[in-house]
Amino acid sequence: MNPLIFGYSMLSLAIILEVFATSFLVKSEQFTKVVPSILVAILYAASFYCLSHTLKVVPVGIAYGIWSGVGILLVTLVGYFWFKQAIDIPAAIGLAFIALGVVIINVFSKAI
After folding, report:
1. Which residue among 3, 33, 47, 77 is the one 20 to 30 A from 93 at the CA level?
2. At a CB cut-off of 8 Å and minimum separation 6, what does 8 contact?
3. What CA–CA distance (Å, rounded) separates 97 from 34?
């Protein structure tokens, strides 16, 4: 497999695992619920493991920018749809800037 494809596949998996971990963090109720708390630890560890493989082929700044930016966007959607959390206009504008930043990195960066 092409190393770059592998790297971005691992980055995608890292993002998905991080979004699940963060969602269970809410469900852990400040680590007072055992099962969600255990899932948080396992999912974050798995996410960082996948991210570490990404860093073999993608520069850390680029990988972390994509990981955190896409993670923020997905966690916000989970919060909106699953936890019924509101998103106001300033938050939506800020999220749009984050999305734009991720697109700019992926389309225009020559660092990869």
Report:
1. 47
2. 54, 58
3. 37
Q: Which domain holds residue 79?
A: 3-108
**Mean per-residue pLDDT over the chain, rounded:** 95
Tokens of 32: 């007072």
Number of domains in the chain: 1
Kindly state the helix (H) or strand (E) to which residue 103 belongs, with its residue range: helix 89-108
Region of residue 109 (phi > 0: left; psi between -120 and 50: alpha; otherwise: beta): beta
Other beta carbons within 10 Å of 17: 21
